[in-house]
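Narrative of activities, Objective 1.

The group set out to show that a structural description can be obtained from nothing but a protein's sequence at a throughput compatible with the screening campaign. Below is one input-output pair from the validation batch, recorded exactly as produced.
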Amino acid sequence: MDRRNSPIGIFDSGVGGLSVWKELVAVLPNESVIYFADNANCPYGPRKQDEIEKLASDVVDFLISKNCKLIIVACNTATASAIDFLRLKYTVPFIGMEPAVKPAALNSKTKRIAVLATEGTFNGKLYNDTSNRYAKDVEVNIKVGDKLVEIVEKGLINEPETIDHITSLVKPLIEKEIDHLVLGCTHYPFLIDVLKAALPSHVNIVDPSPAIVMQTKRVLELNNLAKNENCKPEYTFYCSGSSSVLSSMLKEITDADYDVNEL
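Output recorded for this entry:
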């Protein structure tokens, strides 16, 4: 079997990784993709490292059983806690999520930026290494996105309570006179419209998904894994919990009906 025709695997603790999936299928329209939402164990943020490593490893075992040629860890917390472990354990290439601190720091005019992420991401080595390397000359204000993953997972994005919660969450960041807000969780791009309404118009919201997809493209080409046939791709979806939110989110972002397999 030609390995180049195998699917790309993507996983997240829930529906957040669909923000990466959406960008991936737009940039690489020939590639087949298998998406796994581990929503029975969502959120990953408060969990300990060894627990996240075990959960991630179980998902990767499943994706490898489906012959995935490359796996995107479309979860900032799982990347922070488990990407090194996964790369040591498996031979398949991995792409992890990295908060886009570098472009925010380079483009900031006020030299004040903010990062919105989970506690697990902020505690991870990757975030701290990135910040120390690229943000020495800017003030980085960090904010844990309390309840935001759960809001997206429950489909409560446009509820009045969500709008009030996000307005309160970003208020101290606005007072710091930031001009860039880095989204450090794949769930958060689904809240961009609410965030834009709560932030001053000059604040740029930085979604790392496009950069992650371009890195995926580079790694596929470097490893001679890019699909070489111009044929219709297959998109397959699995979840460890209820399929309802994943199905409705897919319908919302694609306007198409996809079957979601509950495991």
